[in-house]
Structure formats: structure tokens, C-alpha cells
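# nightly structure sweep
# worker-07 picked up a monomer target from the shared queue
# config: single-sequence mode, recycle default, output format = C-alpha cells
# input follows
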Amino acid sequence: MGVAPVTSPFTDRSRLVSDAYADPSKLSARHGIYRFRRDGADFHDRLLDLVDWSGTDVLIDVGCGNAIYLERLLRRLPAGARVVGVDLSAGMLAAASHPTGRVVADVQQLPVASGCVDAVLALHMLYHVPDPKQAVRELRRVLRPGGVAVVSTNGPRHLTELVELGDDRALRGSRVLNMDAAEALLGEVFARAERHDMLDVLEVTEAEPLVAYVRSTISLGGNAETAAAVEARIREIVAAGVFRLTVDAGVLLAR
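# output follows
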């Protein structure tokens, strides 16, 4: 049962640290396309709204990246809460603009004592882990009784319109660990996992942000020639009107 350890460009630790997440630039390019959301609701805030943070004294964000969640969380947590950002990439941590603790570490072996954390976040990052089940065990280990693990990932339909243009990298994260697989995995390790699907549509009216998205994923597999062909098609579609793309993502609250 569960998700077997995987080896792919998505989980290659050396590639992730030295290229894909050496600094926040590629991740920021991927975040940039979500300003074209049709319903206008910010995914990050929608996710954080799912949790009552009032009793959170200690929180760690594993795979915190450019600290986009931590910046919002600091406005929601009780005064004096201890917040630590954890990431595999020292470059990402160095560039993160949040006044919290920062630790370079792997989610598969967290340097955190057992049962000492009120909330642990693993947001859109478990598909980058060679052994997702070991990672989830670590999330469970560090939580105190009554604590919550907040996990997010993509569903199988996420940005399928890019795949139809020939860019299958858009779905590789979903293939490694999509919402269904993540829900099943958390169910094996935690007593229960509460699922929240967050569907939306992007209505892209400018080609360059989506082109930047495609280019940012080359380091996660694929080749420049394929990317160039996809970029050309993106420009053609946007020039003719609006390029609509499916957003299929979700959140799991595990206790």
C-alpha cells in the first residue's frame, strides 16, 4: 500500500537544490500565472482559512521555499508563536523575506524532536520527495497530540491544457503524488485526513507569464526544443484570444 519511493527529475535532490530551487526565481515564475484566476480568490489565503491557528504556539513549514505562506501566517498566529521555515535549499532560505527561524533539512529526516509541534505544513512539495511515505511519517512524528499537518498538492487535471500542447512536465508532479494518492497515503499514517479540493480556471490573456512558467520547469525534466514549441503555441493561442487552463489542486488536513 502507499506510494513507493521514486526517482525522477522531480525528486532528484541534487537537481532540485542546484537548479530548480537554487533560488526563488523559477518558483516565482510558476506562481506568476495564478494572477489570471477566474474567481479571483487567492489559493494561499483559502488554504490558510481552513485552519484555526489560535492555539498554535509552534509551527514548521517544511519546503517553505520563498516563504509565501509564512508571510501570511505571521499575521494569523498568536503573538509569540515560534515559526520555523525548513527547506532543502539553502538558496531558497537565504532569499526568503520572513523574520522566522530557518533550517536547511530534508523532510525525510527532520531535525525536530518528536511531539513538539502544533502545526506542520508540507505545501506542494511532497511530489519532490523520493520516499513520500517516510516524509509523511516524519510529519506525524513531530506533531503533538491534537496537532495538524497541512498538505497540499495537485489533482490529475491540473494544467492539462499545457499537456495537450506537448508539455507533459506540467503533470509530472501529479503523477508522482496527486491528491488521490496523497489522501490515501495520509490515511495510512494519520488517524484521519480531511480533504478540500480547490478547483479554478486560469484565463490567461498575456503570453509571457505562461511562457515563463514553461521555461521554469525545464530544470524538472524535458528539453528546450519541446519547450520552445509549446511557447510558440501559447503565443498563438493568446494572440487569438484567451487561453483557459484548469486549476486542479487541493488541501488535506491530517490529524
